[in-house]
Amino acid sequence: MTFKAVLFDFSGTLFRIESAKSWLSSALAQTGVDMPADEVRRSAMRLAVAGALPGGPLPERVPDHLARAWAARDESAELHRAAYTGVARQVELPDEALYDALYERHMAPAAWRPYADTAEVLGGLRRAGIAVGVVSNIGWDLRPVFRAHGMDGLVDAYVLSYEHGTQKPDPRLFRTACDELGQDPHDVLMVGDSRTADGGAAALGCEVFFVDHLPVEERPTGLRPVLQLAGAGALS
């Protein structure tokens, strides 16, 4: 079937966050805090295990006092910051300023890399006249990431959880995206990496296509099937 619009998740679908080591190293440079190289490596690993890197691995365990904020973390900017800086504080770092610096760093466009075929697929959809929306569980404005990578002109609508006070898989987010694009959900394809969160679009009647949440180097062509699924041209 030919779809009239395609919705995409952000993290792990179109873009990937930098490694925990790069993330911590950037925060250290920003704050002027020195750490030995081996301690940077160990602390980065502990932060990743704690789930402190947004877009990275989920926590192995969420502390009881953070459970409520964590469960609703994508519903507001305040909850998002509280949840992620809270789990980061489970890892001892040499300067308190690092926790806020880490949070600020993950929102920087430089912290994100597009998958190799992101621009190709978004551009192919645009040339085929198929509308594109980004539907993301997130606590901050990701539009500057797309602008910095020259892709903002390929997206017609952004529906971000923190701007609507609810998070995927709530069908209301997908409904909002379909409405902003002026399309019936049955004419819309949702592309994401989470069967739980992104799969919520199926409740509205959207078709859903899943990609693997992998490092950029390990998924060079994961998005290309979307062009064929959407009727935007055959795979090369």
TrEMBL record:
Asked if Hydrolase is a keyword of the record, the answer is: yes
Q: Which UniProt keywords apply?
A: Hydrolase
**Top-level taxon of the source organism:** Bacteria
Short name of any one Pfam family annotated for the protein = Hydrolase
Molecular function terms, GO-annotated: hydrolase activity
Q: Which SUPFAM superfamilies match?
A: HAD-like
What the entry lists under InterPro entries is as follows: HAD-like_sf (IPR036412), HAD-SF_hydro_IA (IPR006439), HAD_sf (IPR023214)
NCBIfam families annotated for this entry? HAD-SF-IA-v1
Name this polypeptide is given:
HAD-IA family hydrolase
Q: What's the source species for this entry?
A: Streptomyces tremellae
